[in-house]
Amino acid sequence: MIQAEGLTKVYQMGESEVRALDGASFTIGKGEMVSIMGPSGSGKSTLMSIIGCLDVPTSGQYSLDGVSVESLGERGLAEVRGRKIGFVFQQFNLLARTSALENVMLPLTYAGYSGREREKRAFAALERVGLGDRTHHAPNELSGGQQQRVAIARAIVNEPTILLADEPTGALDSKTGVEIMDLFQSLHRDSGQTVILVTHDAYVARHTDRIIRISDGRIVSDDINPNPIKAGTAREE
Amino acid sequence: MLFSENFKIALRALRANKMRSVLTILGIVIGVATVVALLSIGNGATASITSSIQSGGSNLLTVSPGRLQMGMASMGQSQQMSHLYYNDFELLERTLTGRAESVVPVYQSSYQVTFGDESFSTTVSGVVEEHAQVRSFSLADGRFISEGDNKSHLRVAVLGDTVATDLFGSFSPIGKTISINGVKFEVVGLLESKGAGLGSPDDIIFVPIETGYSKLFGDTANYNGRKTVNNILVSVTETGEMDTVSAQIAYILRRAHELKPSEEQDFNVLSQTDTLATLNSVTQTLTIFLGAIAGISLLVGGIGIMNIMLVSVTERTKEIGLRKAVGATKNQILTQFLIETVTLSLLGGIVGILLGVGIATAFSVMGLISSVITVDSILMAFLFALAIGVFFGLYPALRAASLHPMVALRYE
Questions:
Q1: Are B201 and B122 in contact (CB under 8 A)?
Q2: What is the pTM for the complete model shown?
Q3: How far is B51 from chain A (nearest CA, A)?
Q4: What is the CATH classification number for the domain harbouring A213?
Q5: Residues of B in contact with A83 (CB under 8 A)
Q6: Is B322 in contact with A112 (Cβ distance < 8 A)?
Q7: What is the number of domains present in chain A?
Q8: For residues B49 and B197, is the Cβ–Cβ distance under 8 A?
């Protein structure tokens, strides 16, 4: 459950101030699949970093599962990221020379799980994304799509409140992109996982039930998408 | 997060850049190896000097000419070179009866010694019979200089181990005739080796001092028509009376040399303990000096490590961002990078210790100096390497830890 009220983020760039976010308010309920859409420079990345607790707003309120994050210190934010947020990035961001299993285990390591528990959960997460047979492969031995699956396994391994994906198909070819979108949809459908996709691509956004559009740091529209595309349907602009 | 996991991450990062890691720790390796080798060799030198001095006996007082001045300031002044005379010896021998077991004179100088084709320069020392006992010499073969040799001015010689080996190889020198500065001497005795020590104690030939004065030393042993000596050795009967006897010698010699109360002594009386203290302070100064040089190389090594760690932090900015995104706290990142630096410096330390021990052992094996490798010096080097790792790792680790997660993730 996400509640955002009047989120504002101001960056000081030398003399001038940049208002990356200017009073954004919205609520995202548990189990929703939402996309946040906007062109580059619209403030969607800043919004994503606040939703993901990577940063705190200059003003406004943001609470996650009823816990207000403004009051949390560096340590508290790290803990919220580790326990409640699962990140998926455009460039996968896997650790090189590190097996898929160990990559997936990383959030659990910081959350303080025991070695055996970590391995068990990481295995399960890799099974869930269909990579049960690639657990000991390093990222450079996997295809782009497989690497993104490992990243998704890493994001869901700690059973987060929010699965937060930043242009998750941006570095993939369209066929692999579709497979990844299918995976997000199935996580949402089968496990009731809250999914937030941040993208500039309207086609990707249309895979979700709700689309929030942002421009110049303000939310310009927040609509229910009555007929989300089922992943695999032919692309049409 | 456990130490072992951080250690695993560190090893993986270091393995990823093998060549770089090796070059980085080289500075630490050299620094630590130098410290360990120097300390071991220094310890060995001190031990051998100590034992060679103590083998002379703890009740020995050495009287030598000259003023006791450690500084160089007075050396250049136009003071006349002071002398000890044979008369001084006779005087001391007469007056110290009862307090001194024996009083012996020594006159020594360097001469060319020849046997067959072999010829080289060595120290020739004119002594009396009691010398062997005062200096606790033991003979490997033959006999030492006797009272009769001195009375009759016999041309006999006792060889130190090194001289004997150089002249005769493995053959026995007893009964052979050698030539010292063109004068023929018959070898009557061979000393046991004293081993490596201060100023190669085996590279010496002993002759009767009286024979020396009449047939070998010539005019150089005379000053103002009086026979001079280099040293007078006094072996004191009671070790507890060393200071008293020392003062007594000073009193007697001041009078004999007709020194005014305001004048400084033109001789000095040193006990083994004094000599030991002087030499030890010299070796200590030397060890500290060399240690400081080794310390500088450790410092340079540490800066090298810091440099590479800063590069590593920059290269791995995205990784740091990712780790923060999945829940790593500032402290966990700090610990990770600190452990990585410490791992580097400790690896360097361990390799350096092995190398240093190797060098010290090589010195011993080659017979240069019997080095003494102590647990202390190894422990010290190890702790030093650890401290360098922590000290120089802290800044890069802090830089890594304080990266903003969002900025780090977007870093290209």
A1: no
A2: 0.73
A3: 58
A4: 3.40.50.300
A5: 327
A6: no
A7: 1
A8: yes
